[in-house]
Write a structure and sequence with these properties.
Blueprint lengths: L9 E6 L11 H27 L4 E6 L5 H8 L6 E4 L4
Parallel strand pairs: 1-2, 2-3
Length: 90
């Protein structure tokens, strides 16, 4: 992190890669499963980028819930983040 800059917390908002839930506007082109795969890759890449940036801690906000197997697998695979929350649907 640059000594002249203030630390920030990067918030990453991510939906679980569930067919029919994630990247719904891409379903006509990719299919529900293809859109979910793309969501998985986007989330993984975004987290890697945020963590490598060195700007500060990364907070992962999850939908539909942090207990979803995708987010738990990320944690088990060693993707560190100090703060994880579920987003509530409104």
């Amino acid at each position: 992190m640059n000594e002249d800059s203030k630390a920030v917390c990067l918030a990453v908002l991510a939906k679980a890669p569930v067919p029919g839930l994630a990247k719904t506007r891409l379903i006509p082109a990719l299919g529900a499963v293809g859109a979910a795969r793309l969501q998985r890759r986007f989330t993984q890449r975004t987290l890697r980028t945020a963590l490598r940036s060195g700007l500060g801690p990364v907070a992962l906000w999850c939908a539909p819930q942090v207990q979803h197997r995708f987010f738990q697998a990320l944690r088990r695979s060693g993707v560190p983040w100090p703060c994880t929350r579920s987003l509530k649907a409104t």
